[in-house]
Write a structure and sequence with these properties.
about 100 residues, Alpha-Beta Plaits, 4-stranded antiparallel sheet, two-stranded antiparallel ribbon, 3 helices, globular
């Protein structure tokens, strides 16, 4: 079972391949993804790595958390599940009826 890791503090120039290479030293990387802004395409300075096993994930977290990469200090920990977001927008019909 794969374990997902959150990686914060990435330099904005970091690629998915560089992120994968950074973690590959500590075990088998199933996937690595730098999160980018959906409109500009620029990195948001964090990403997620999936390791092949929980043991390898813990080894990578211990080894890399607080280390420097590209002049920035990394925050590396177990990823938490994404919280549901609100629908946003509201009821359009209701707001039209007020006018």
């Amino acid at each position: 079972m794969a374990s997902k890791i959150y990686v914060g503090g990435l330099p904005y120039s970091t690629t998915d391949a560089q992120l994968s290479d950074l973690f590959a030293v500590h075990g088998a990387v199933a996937s690595a993804r730098v999160i980018t802004d959906r409109f500009t395409g620029q990195s948001r300075g964090f990403g997620f790595v999936e390791m092949a096993s929980p043991e390898e994930a813990q080894k990578a977290i211990t080894a890399l958390n607080g280390t420097e990469f590209g002049g920035r200090t990394l925050t590396v920990n177990e990823a938490r599940p994404q919280e549901p977001r609100g629908g946003g927008g509201g009821d359009r019909k209701q707001s039209r009826d007020r006018w």
